[in-house]
Design brief:
336 residues, alpha/beta, Rossmann fold, Alpha-Beta Plaits, four-stranded antiparallel β-sheet, 11 helices, 14 strands, binds adenosine-5'-triphosphate, membrane, ABC_transporter-like_ATP-bd
Amino acid sequence: MIRFIDVHKSYRVEGKDVPALEPFSLEIADGEVFGIIGHSGAGKSTLVRLINLLERPTGGRILVGDTDITALSDAPLRAARQRIGMIFQHFNLLASQTVVENVAFPLRLAGDKDTKAIRARADELLQHVGLSVHANKYPSQLSGGQKQRVGIARALANHPSILLCDEATSALDPQTTASVLDLLAQINRELKLTIVLITHEMDVVRRVCDRVAVLDTGRIVEHGAVADVFLHPKHPTTRRFVNEALPEEAAGERLPYEHVPGRIMRLSFRGEATWSPTLGRVTRETGVDFNILAGRIDRIKDLPYGQLTLAMQGANVDAALRALREAGIEVEELAR
Ligand SMILES: Nc1ncnc2c1ncn2[C@@H]1O[C@H](COP(=O)(O)OP(=O)(O)OP(=O)(O)O)[C@@H](O)[C@H]1O
């Protein structure tokens, strides 16, 4: 568990304290993938850098497991940091060292002198991220996705329990982003480590995160399970992020409904409900007519979900809505 307790952070700029993070408390559970989403300057990097004390909080306490890392002296802090890996947007690899030397670097830094054991561990890590054949290349000879895989292998070298990802896919094309996110999800599953991931894209959150916090100018404006935040965003900033992740035609709210007859409803299906023909059954039984205005079926991490925007007409719309809710479908009225 990572716990932020009444933490806040200001930077000293030209003799003045400028707040970067307003006081907040937050818990990140062991083994979860936790997303932090926000626009540029919202405070995302500051927040994750507090976890390994690359930045010190101005106030409050940060517990990693049972240890208050803000109270540690240098030597135990160095040891605690070895259990926290980090990957970066621009990979931060050593250009003059080969791939395998880059991966071995943190092992040497940790004081390991057994060169054979170091090489064996680095080879094992490279195999894990699918880069064994590139072991003796230099970073400049790799693609962006391959460089990030080296970054991931290096971050895992000392068997961390936490992996911090600072915009790890922002410099990558969509296909490479998907493969790096798949690798992170696999690592999370297999090694059971906690991943804290910063991004400015809701789609990244949707694909890999279990929970998410939305940051807006230094404040956490919303946080919760990704399915809840994604399907029912409350804060305007969250809504904007969600809408950016949806294709134009599926972001129902943006369509003009003034001239569409009927009540405009948005139905959200999760899990098994996504595959059952409940809407057909309920409308048949209640005699309600509907017209589909927008819709999508997709996944939030491993959870299938569907969203439909409908215009519903007939005498029994309220009864139909009740029956839909009873069948586990979430129903929101967008316009009447
Ligand atoms: N070392 C620093 N000194 C002074 N101000 C800083 C420092 N680092 C960050 N800031 C300021 O703190 C605020 C939050 O910055 P931070 O880098 O955490 O945001 P971010 O959400 O990660 O942004 P980006 O997505 O652009 O990286 C910004 O206003 C930034 O200018």
